[in-house]
Amino acid sequence: MCPGGRYAGLDLPAGAGACAGDLRPAFDVLDADRDGRISREDLKSFYANTGAAATSDDDIAAMIAAADADLDGFVQYHEFEGLLRRAAAAGGRPSAMEDAFRLMDRDGDGKVGFDDLKAYLGWAGMPVADDEVRAMISVAGDADGGVGLEALARILAVDFEAAA
Length: 164
Hints:
Helix content is 51%, strand content 2%.
């Protein structure tokens, strides 16, 4: 199974892949406890682990409220997707997957390499063996120097369990 836990595709330009436009990997990054919904605790965990400046409880509550269409205090995938699609239609904001890519690219070189991907997967609660990380990167065609955003989409779109 791919690192997103189910299937994956990225918010890439049309034609970039079979799963283009799928925001599930970005949702999965934020859903820290993997319960299928983003909670305040999930967002607190995300911001704490990214090294971002402290985010107040009021800010977290505002983020949840912005997407929580059914007012249950959580953000389900369809609410998350709707919010991001509306924001993308408004223009000027990087996609959620561009943000996730920047999070994975710890050294800021514009590529997700072995160390970047291994550290990210461990942080996300999906520890994998070194050989598995190398296999993921080689799927994208550059096992040595790392991969860019579109190549990362190819990595995340592969179901590694089915391929084994």
